[in-house]
Amino acid sequence: MLVIRLVIFVFIFSSTLNAQTKVNEFNAEGKRIGVWEKYYDNGSLRYKGQFENGKEVGVFKFYNEDAPEHPIIIKEFIAHSTIAKVMFYLKDGTLQSTGELVGKNRVGKWIFYYENGIKSSEENYVKGQLSGPYKLFYENGVLAEFTHFEEGEREGKASYYNLKGALLGSGAFSNDEKIGEWEYFEEGDPSKRSVGKY
Description:
Elements: H1 2-21, E1 25-26, E2 32-39, E3 45-52, E4 55-64, E5 67-77, E6 83-89, E7 95-102, E8 105-113, E9 119-126, E10 129-130, E11 132-137, E12 143-150, E13 153-154, E14 156-161, E15 167-174, E16 177-185, E17 193-197
Antiparallel strand pairs: 1-2, 2-3, 3-4, 4-5, 5-6, 6-7, 7-8, 8-9, 9-10, 9-11, 11-12, 12-13, 12-14, 14-15, 15-16, 16-17
């Protein structure tokens, strides 16, 4: 009885192992299924991920041809959605940006980082174009610019700050051009105010 159980266990284990090692398969309809891997000409892994009925599911990892130690892109495909959560990395594994994609278009909030890990900007996208609040930061983390975008162009109020967070200038944009009255403060000093009209 023990021998039969052992044989059954070995058979099941071997079957499971074989099923796990199969890659780059298609189903009866010719759609990608299971684990897929692609390689560069030099033999380095290009990407690895999983498909269900031809659709990407779960986590995909993409690698640089010359730096295979860390993925340069990680995509997490959301079930029953066209959205993928994405993280971009430098070759050394340093996080560069995070956000969401629909196809190749950025959507929603994206955050970008300096190499030291400090946030460099917060950007909002609609169908791949900048739309909504936009924040730019200095490498010390202090806000440098706060503006708004509509369909890729600056629109509405805008403010600019120095490295210490003091206001340098403020005004408004229309169609990516300055309009109306703008205030400027030399070195962020409120007593050194000047006004420009556009």
